[in-house]
Design a protein that fits this description.
The complex is a heterodimer. Chain A is α/β, with parallel strands linked by helices. In chain A, 37% of the residues lie in helices and 19% in strands. In chain A, helix 5 crosses helix 6. Chain A is globular, with a radius of gyration of 19 Å. In chain B, a hairpin with a 2-residue loop joins strand 2 and strand 3. Helices cover 40% and strands 15% of the residues of chain B. Chain B has 11 helices and 10 strands. A 7-stranded parallel sheet of chain B has the order 1-10-9-8-7-6-4. By secondary structure, chain B is α/β, with parallel strands linked by helices. Chain B has a single domain, classed as TIM Barrel (Alpha-Beta Barrel), CATH 3.20.20.210. The chains are: A alpha/beta, B alpha/beta.
Chain lengths: 327, 325
């Protein structure tokens, strides 16, 4: 059985080869008044083209656009919502990266598609269907400061519905896979279960596209029962930094897909393909009724571009081995 | 009459544009290391003068000669390689350390700079180091079998540097651990590693911890084996004080009253109210008033405008409350 490969979120934006367009340089030049916004947009487009090309040449089955225009994992989407403003920089969990904190200052409303134009443009550059990338509603809430709602569940429901509308728009634009990034599910305590469910439930209603809830950094063990029977197609688990996630495999409903995060996106040490393939075999043995994908544990943007490219190649190599071994 | 409310800063200051330009020129091979260092020294003296002028009690060298707070140390220690750029936010990138062998301190890392800075002023200058847990957590690891093994090797190296700073005369040694607040389950490791780093020190020891999941890490945070823990109060609208009411803060505290992530300069009254709220649950002799975090992300004008407000607010509170330095 073939193990499909995919990436889990954004991808490094810097080039690895001399002569390639460097969006960082162009943005710096724009900030100094030496380049135009159009030149920045062109550099973002070329970065997207390059990132898709890297994945396609490596043989990634379900590529992503790499979020070349995004400053962090949620601001780009959050600033397009009604009732949300963007505030100061704060640390993004334990990653030594930062994000601008969304502040909920009024009723959250989805006004128009935020990511659809980018998705269409990226899909136009790709040979294979891309996976669309969105923040997950529970994590978006936890990353935000709520200055409006009286009760968390009201904010969570509003964010869930807004993200469901965005997912619907992506679906209409042709997205076959939609990824919701949910790092906070790994940090949520059991008493948060009802809130987690409130946030995620709207995402899957009537959904035709396949959906993945991706949980990097930690295992969503404490709230897994709350999301287990929701309508997601796949769950992405970080099996490099969160070994407890292995115990969830037998609890995933039969017929669903698990994206096995077996290539560490937060360390430059390159995995051995045989080791990764053995881990895939272990997952198959633990949960024979499931389908599996192979992915990095998190966004590859935690790595420098040269190392990320090596990890992509190693991921594909490991998946090919695992597919052969799986018969 | 009680003493207290000493003023200081957390460590880093913004680099003047001329220095940024010189660093870029040096990186491109257009400026020699000697010329860059001469400018760094000149700007460090200027920075110390400005700290004296506004009346801070405990000074810092401003770290104008450092880039990232982990990479600076990693570049000087065998066992580390440095990665290609990794994004931290938006269009900001930094080069991240990679552990590729046993990490050792083979030469002084900061002592010469500390001596230089202290020679410029009669006020105490803090020795500033990055802690072993944070160095470990913010590096890639291609060598060590475990996070613990890497953190404890780093603890040995940093301890050697801290002892050298003390030997040179540093009365305050700050070993920053901003990473400890985000992995509560590893707090015991951070405590052990920092404990080794400060073992045998007679100087006043300080650690700076950034805002994190205090519901989980407080009061266990007080296990960090230093005299003073420096915390962000303003950024969290002083909600840590509610925790201190429930579980008293038993160490000295670096009491952050300036939001370093905001361009806005706080009003004197706002800072004063923040200090007065602190005095409801803390003793003045426990409190060292400072910004929430390093000021390097602000402009120099913003940084000093904020610090001037802070010092003015502290003076008023001291006068009104009869607190001496």
């Amino acid at each position: 059985m073939k193990i499909e490969t995919t990436l889990a979120g954004s991808y490094p934006k810097l080039p690895t080869q001399p002569g390639e367009i460097n969006v960082r340089v162009v943005r710096n030049r724009r900030d100094q008044g030496k380049a135009t916004d159009q030149e920045v947009s062109d550099a973002i487009r070329e970065t997207t083209r390059r990132v898709i090309g890297i994945q396609e040449r490596a043989g990634i089955d379900i590529p992503v656009d790499g979020q070349a225009a995004w400053d962090d994992a949620q601001t780009y989407f959050a600033r397009g919502l009604g009732g949300v403003q963007i505030a100061g920089l704060i640390r993004y969990l334990d990653t030594n990266t930062y994000y601008r904190q969304p502040e909920i200052v009024g009723p959250v409303s989805w006004m128009k598609p935020v990511t659809v134009d980018d998705f269409r443009a990226a899909q136009g550059m790709a040979q294979r269907p891309l996976k669309a990338l969105l923040p997950g509603p529970y994590s978006l809430y936890r990353f935000s400061k709520d200055l409006h709602y009286k009760k968390p569940e009201e904010a969570l429901q509003a964010l869930g519905e807004a993200l469901a509308r965005e997912a619907g728009a992506l679906e209409e634009a042709g997205a076959r896979w939609i990824h919701f990034e949910e790092p906070w599910l790994g940090r949520a305590r059991g008493e948060e279960s009802a809130n987690v469910r409130t946030a995620l439930e709207p995402l899957f209603k009537g959904r035709k596209a396949r959906t993945v809830v991706h949980v990097p950094f930690a295992s969503p063990t404490a709230v897994f029962d709350a999301i287990r029977d929701l309508g997601w197609s796949a769950i992405g688990l970080d099996l490099t930094e969160a070994p407890a996630a292995w115990d969830l495999l037998p609890r995933v409903p039969a017929g669903r897909t698990v994206a096995l995060g077996l290539v560490n996106a937060r360390n430059t040490r390159l995995e051995d393909a045989e080791d990764v393939a053995r881990s895939v075999a272990r997952a198959r043995a633990a949960a024979p009724g499931l389908e599996f994908q192979l992915s990095p544990s998190a966004s590859l943007e935690y790595l420098p571009a040269d190392k990320a490219e090596l990890k992509v190649s190693r991921l594909v190599e490991a998946a090919q081995l695992a597919s052969r071994n799986g018969g | 009459m009680p003493r207290g409310l000493w003023t200081t800063t957390v460590g880093s200051f913004p680099k003047p544009p001329s220095l940024e330009k010189a660093r870029n020129q040096h990186a491109r091979g257009e400026l020699s290391a000697e010329a860059l260092e001469a400018l760094e020294r000149e700007e460090t003296i200027r920075l110390l003068r400005r700290q004296e002028e506004i009346g801070l009690d405990i000074l810092v060298d401003g770290e104008l000669y450092r880039g990232d707070m982990t990479t600076y140390f990693a570049e000087l220690m065998p066992g580390f390689a440095i990665s290609n750029p990794v994004r931290s936010y938006g269009n900001r990138y930094y080069r991240k350390p990679i552990a590729v062998g046993p990490i050792r301190r083979k030469k002084p890392l900061t002592v010469d700079w500390w001596k230089f800075a202290q020679a410029q002023t009669s006020k105490p200058v803090k020795g500033m180091l990055t802690g072993p847990y944070t160095m470990m957590d913010w590096s890639f690891n291609e060598y060590y079998p475990s996070r613990e093994a890497m953190a404890m090797d780093l603890a040995e190296a940093i301890r050697e540097e801290a002892l050298a700073l003390q030997e040179a005369g540093a009365k305050y040694i700050q070993i920053d651990e901003p990473a400890v607040s985000v992995r509560p389950e590893e707090l015991p490791l951070a405590v052990r590693a920092l404990g080794r780093a400060v073992e045998g020190l007679k100087a006043k020891t300080i650690t700076h911890v950034c805002y994190g999941d205090f519901d989980v890490i407080y009061p266990a945070l007080l296990d960090l084996p230093v005299d003073m823990i420096d915390l962000e109060l303003a950024n969290s609208r002083y909600d840590l004080l509610d925790r201190f009411r429930a579980q008293p803060f038993t160490k000295e505290i670096g009491y952050g009253v300036l939001d370093v992530h905001s361009h806005r300069v706080e009003s004197k009254d706002e800072v004063k109210q923040g200090i007065l709220r602190g005095l409801q649950v803390l003793k003045p002799e426990q409190m060292y008033v400072d910004p929430d975090c390093g000021l390097k992300t602000r402009t120099m004008d913003e940084a000093f405008a904020k610090l001037e407000v802070m010092v003015a607010a502290v003076r008023e509170v001291r006068e009104e409350q009869g607190i001496t330095v």
